[in-house]
Amino acid sequence: MRVILPVRLKLRGGRCWLVTPEGAPALAKAAVDAALVKALRAAHGLVDAMEAAAAAPASAYDRVLCTIAFLAPDIQRAIFEGRQPPGFNLQRLLHGAIPLAWADQRVAFGF
Q1: How far apart are CA 99 and CA 14, in angstroms?
Q2: For 24-77, what is each residue's pLDDT tens digit?
Q3: Can you name the residues that pair with 8 across neighbouring β-strands?
Q4: 3-state SS track over 67-110
Q5: Which of 1, 54, 96, 99 is the most buried (most CB within 10 A)?
Q6: What is the C-alpha separation between 57 and 71, in angstroms, rounded?
Q7: What pLDDT, on a 0 to 100 scale, did the predictor assign at position 53?
Q8: Burial profile 75-89: b = 16 or more Cβ within 10 angstroms, e = fewer
Q9: pTM for the whole thing?
Q10: Is 62 exposed, middle or buried (0-12, 13-18, 19+ CB in 10 A)?
Q11: What is the C-alpha separation between 62 and 70, in angstroms, rounded?
């Protein structure tokens, strides 16, 4: 079996990488969504504060934000590494329903 890919190796000073025939990089760098990362960190901070104070967050936004702290660990890791699927953003998480089961979360969000 032969696999032909529309890329070529570009060699420069001992380094090599894949480029398309037009010269563009074949592998795009991961784009970290700063808003998602900031919200995920804030959500974990709120959950930690709730455990320490034994009180619910005061604002409705904080209560909704807390729900993203319970995303599947691999989804959270993908967010921090910038490997989330296209269209996956903070607004979708805050205004949509987040399934409770991690397997259902992966299906619902395209991971």
Answers
A1: 48
A2: 666 666 688 999 999 999 999 999 988 888 888 889 999 999 999 999 999 999
A3: 19
A4: HHHHCCHHHHHHHHHCCCCCCCCHHHHHHCCCCCCHHHHHHHHC
A5: 99
A6: 19
A7: 85
A8: bbebbeeeebeeebe
A9: 0.68
A10: middle
A11: 14
The two tokens of residue 18 are 């894949």
Q: How far apart are CA 19 and CA 5, in angstroms?
A: 11
Angle at 68 between CA 64 and CA 71, to 5 degrees: 150
Residue with tokens 């995303």: 71
Would you give the DSSP letter of residue 51?
A: H
14, β-bridge pairs: none
Which residue type sits at 44? H
Residue type at 28? A
Cα Dmax for the chain: 62
- Under 8 Å between Cβ of 19 and 10: yes
- Token pair 């990089």 is found at 25
